[in-house]
Batch of 2 targets.
Target 1
Amino acid sequence: MKREFAVIGLGRFGGSICHELSKEGMDVLAIDLDEDKVNEFKNIASHAVIADTTDEKVLKEIGIRNIDHVIVAIGDNIQASILTTLMLKELGIKKITVKAQNDYHEKVLRKIGADQVVHPERDMGKRIAHSIISNNILDHLELSDDHSIVEVKAGKKMSGRSLIDLDIRAQYGCNVVAIKKDKEINVSPMATVVIEDGDVLIVIGSDIDISRFEKNLV
Ligand code: ADP
């Protein structure tokens, strides 16, 4: 099913979103102030236009009101990002996703009604930091300020032991929500499942509990 998206700001982040949505067959309107950027996306997105999105008249002219979901990926210009978001909100766009540069920017964006605020650099930094701590931590996804999901590779400490035996929930307050063995994924593992070297566990919990789990078992 095709859905209408618009990406405003075709830098590294917005450009990558635009590429990926187009690759998935979505209908994407690519927008930037910069003519070279727009030309670059002419053959990638369904449509590409040069526009300054801080101007309400311009937004109306390019038909932004017909778009279901707009992604605001304006980089360093926080003022332009906020103004654009405000205007999109006033025009009644159903879903607005905005890239924030810092926590203050995020606060303002949430106040003016952005539906989703993302911090790609901060979040990627956190994920990479976790994978640097241990080679066995494959991924880390933040659920809230103090809860996460981690993907960890089972090593010797867990190998040959069942979930009951490891007693992860009681000992560390975390839940193993899935276990991947080669290509198979068990999404509600029984407590009797025996973990083998190289299995991948998906664990959910508070950051404090996950950190204790990682220190002791990973
Ligand atoms: P990144 O950090 O993702 O690479 P950049 O700052 O390089 O982000 O890119 C942001 C893009 O947003 C630039 O291509 C810039 O031309 C565009 N941009 C900035 N202000 C506006 C605006 N008012 N209207 C439309 N596009 C804008």
Note: Residues 8-14, 31-34, 37, 52-54, 73-77, 80 surround adenosine-5'-diphosphate (CB under 6 Å).
Target 2
Amino acid sequence: MLIGVPKEIKNHEYRVGLTPTSVREFVAHGHAVMVETNAGVGIGCNDEDYVAAGAAIAADAKDVFAKAEMIVKVKEPQAVERKMLREGQLLFTYLHLAPDPDQTRDLVDSGAVCVAYETVTDSHGGLPLLAPMSQVAGRMSVQAGAHSLERAHGGRGMLLGGVPGVEPAKVVVIGGGVVGENAIYMALGQAADVTVLDRNVNVLSHLTNRFGAALKTVYSTREALERHVLEADMVVGAVLVAGAEAPKLVSAEMVKAMKPGSVLVDVAIDQGGCFATSHATTHADPTYIVDDVVHYCVANMPGAVPRTSTYALNNATLPFGLALADKGYAQALLDDAHLLAGLNVIGGKVTYKAVADDLGYDY
Ligand code: NAD
């Protein structure tokens, strides 16, 4: 199969669909790969790296879309890219169609076969192609929060781990899923005093088994939330209620009562945020202050570390991409119900129920 990798064109998107390492795997499986010139510059990979891995370099996206049988990307295709898709062409990327009627209509009209990363499932009921970005955001949350705790950024002027003889910062993580677990890992690694709240006792058991006595686990109730948030130097908001807006677990009054210079990192901001005072920010201007509390609310945290994010994403997408290329999409989807769950559009029809329901398509 001929696999095409266009350069991402969405604003401030530096990731790329395939790393040179992944290209080499596709080539070893007998496929040809065509990469748009400079597609990998944002992750520090130039055209020579791709050629060394066995790819051909295309002069522009038009050439890639015109020739490739499967397009591998990161972000949903932009309007100009959607015009280049053709009937029967396979598209493998993040789509997030439910809130995007224009994109959905264009993909339906194109006749392309569209497999969305975010709806591929695994045998534990998880979303394996979303998890790597949650891992990145979770780990980054502590890095961003530590930076915000510095005095020059409006913080309390504390080092997360303190030093011998000086207390460490109190870090409270709300939600102990993928983001939360990775935030805990980083915060404990920096010797902070870490507490996690979750309303699922199985999640708390898992975290206790993993991190032992170093981590305090607390069942999430209104009373517990209030007590721990008011004591915290840094709070990481990492809750998710599948398919719903994030619950506002910390009210404006609670924020007002927090210690001056404490820090809120709202990772759940892409679902509306779990602090009442949160609004989405960008990497260009990531923080703002409300009632002396520093807020970090970047909706696309992995975008700041495109190299790590691209490699992490490729580790998760590669086996599915190879299956699609090796077997052809029809057989690959028939053989794997988890990959089939990723199919959102085929033959001019929406095949993902939540998208069809939300946007009024027959299912
Ligand atoms: P997850 O499903 O793995 O974990 C969510 C956890 O929240 C679960 O353990 C759940 O029990 C817990 N929870 C739900 N309601 C709660 C409550 N009231 N109190 C305490 N805990 C509660 O989800 P995840 O992958 O860790 O993602 C967390 C959030 O981070 C999501 O909103 C996701 O979209 C977001 N995210 C943001 C970025 C970014 O760049 N900002 C990147 C990746 C993920």
Note: The radius of gyration is 22 Å.
